[in-house]
Amino acid sequence: MEPSKSIDSSGMDEFGYTQTLDRSIGKFASFAAGVSYISILTGVFQLFYFGFSMAGPAYAWSWPIVFVGQLMVALCFAELAGRYPVAGSVYNWAKRLASGTSSWLAGWLLMLSSIMALGSVALALQITLPQLWSGFQFVGDGTGPFDFAMNGVVLATIMITISTLINAFGVKLMTRINSIGVFVELIAAVLLILALGWHVVRGPEVFFDTAGFGEGHDLGFFGVFLIGAMASGYVMYGFDTASSLGEETKDPKRTAPKAILRAVTASFLLGGLILLFGILAAPDLTDPKVGSADGGLQHIVLSVLGGPFGKAFLVCIVVAVVVCTLAVHAAAIRMMFAMARDNNLPFSRQLSKVDPVRRTPTVAAIVIGVLAVVPLLINVMQPAIFTILSSISIVLIYLSYLLVTVPLLRKRFQRKWPIRDAEGSEAGFSMGKWGLPVNILAVLWGGAMTLNLIWPRQEIYNSVPPFEWYLQWGGVIFVAAVTVGGALLYRLKIRHQTGVLAEHAAAVAAHPSSGPAGEAAQQPAQGAEPSRSPASPDLVDEAVKVP
């Protein structure tokens, strides 16, 4: 799978765009972007209580299962990143694999999910900060029915504001903070694993005991395991961020694929060991705090390691939440920027504007920050805000991933993948003969997880009173609304204006456009100069199509 040394990894004219972003990200920073988005110390600590409360210690088996499934997806993405390391990775990959409608939907759904995920990640501060110091509980004393949720919204809004300022300032500052934070997170994860391993009080047989979980459920333990598995499914995604920052990465065709695979693998190993030793070291697994939102894995760490050491690790978790917020925000910005420069969003010219000094999409950074706070304010009186926001955002992410893996599989069956660029250069990563079986598994996994995530279970979408059908079906209704609404928006309006804006088009297209795809790509956008160059459609047999 070693790439050819002849790859031109940095020429944006290959894709029909001019280089407007700051190409300054190195190998570790690219890896750190993927790791910080997955952020095991954020996700594992934020959602451990949920998985444990649903299926007990045996829920930990969901971690390796989710890893294997997501690795299949990551391998497909690594192959695509080795050819197209462009901002808004999923959107730009789908553009080269499928129709204009489905590629636009892939970007639309992932952008919306990133905005919602930004809020849900920032909410994780509520699970950790008040346990560090009670002064962080600004709203009430934490005992009121809405104190927990309302204070979480306050902390999350402050965090998103900080993230907006950092991301708007430039990618160098963001990646520098992110890399330092990831380094701290990785060291803390290793030390935490060693510390918990030293304090193990029970054997691994606990993972083979259902401990009464699932009794009375229609599907028994399997039913509650499927629900608990979401705690792992909510964590291990976002590895495509390394490629979404490809336009700002040095030697991206080689760097991005490796960063994707290393990020998901490192997160699996470290997160899995934390889960393993956390459960084995817990003083009392029957303690109600272990399965409660204001306790969870944080409670276990504080109980096992004591005051100073336990709180030191909680500080590291706060660092992880901060850098995870930065990474999710950065990915959302790149998606908005990528779609806007193709004139594929309302107010595209403003959203695609790049600051001439900082060379970053400042307007997009601010808009994403503002939009991320909206769902928090809407749900401010909802105590189950964590699981609701997480569930809906992850469903959208898995759907957007399917809009890449499914058309990629279709290309393989049609023997149109892998393909060689016009110059004959090879990609930065290839699965070779393993591509087809891996791609099939990726599609099957994505479909199964999407179904499991969107299933209108009361435990997920309406876990606390009032119990109403429209709340329980809220996830299905919302996902259907944004998908159908997005498709109509594209078909009725946006597809008639799509085309690379002049200020982002390469001065000379890499290859002349030809055929229907080329004609579509050359359609002038409304309000844009007709002389601009389109994204090159010769990279694959089908470029972005505008039906």
CATH topology: Amino acid/polyamine transporter I
How many separate helices? 22
In CATH, what is the class? Mainly Alpha
Q: How many domains is the backbone divided into?
A: 1
Kindly state the number of beta strands.
0
What class do helices, strands and sheet pairing give? mainly alpha
Outline the secondary-structure elements:
Elements: H1 27-38, H2 40-55, H3 62-81, H4 89-95, H5 100-122, H6 125-132, H7 147-169, H8 171-198, H9 220-228, H10 230-233, H11 241-244, H12 252-281, H13 296-305, H14 307-341, H15 348-351, H16 362-378, H17 385-413, H18 435-454, H19 458-461, H20 469-472, H21 474-492, H22 515-521
Helix pairs in contact: 1-8, 1-12, 1-14, 2-9, 2-12, 2-14, 3-12, 3-18, 4-5, 4-17, 5-7, 5-14, 5-16, 5-17, 5-21, 6-14, 7-8, 7-14, 7-16, 8-12, 8-14, 13-14, 14-16, 17-18
